[in-house]
Amino acid sequence: xxxxxxxxxxKVGLGMGMSLGTAESISAVANVAFLGSLIVxxxxxxxIYVTAGVKETAFKHALSEANVEIAKARASGAQAQAVAxxxxxxxxxxxxxxxxxxxRAASLENEAAQARMREAILKRQLLEVQxxxxxxxx
Length: 138
Description:
Helix content is 84%, strand content 0%. By secondary structure, it is an all-alpha fold.
């Protein structure tokens, strides 16, 4: 039978043929890198926490300003609607006045036409009277 000794085992993987000193050096570097990454991660998490608070404060301030601007815009819109309502009322009054004026103009035009007809009738009557007076002997 063959006795298996540590040197007779087949080495498989990355560590094939690596010495103990090299393995310890690589392990130490890996541990330091891992510890460094943990420290960087904790610092990054702290900065994320701090900046999130600053960003949230800025967001609340911007939201507050936006709400003030919205309130101003709504008030301005309400004023504009009031002015438009007044203008519409004035326009309606003007339309009513124009309709009344048109009715009055039509009435006056009718009266003028009747007056012209009376004038024409009176002229004819006058001419008839003048003809009769010329023919009548004195």
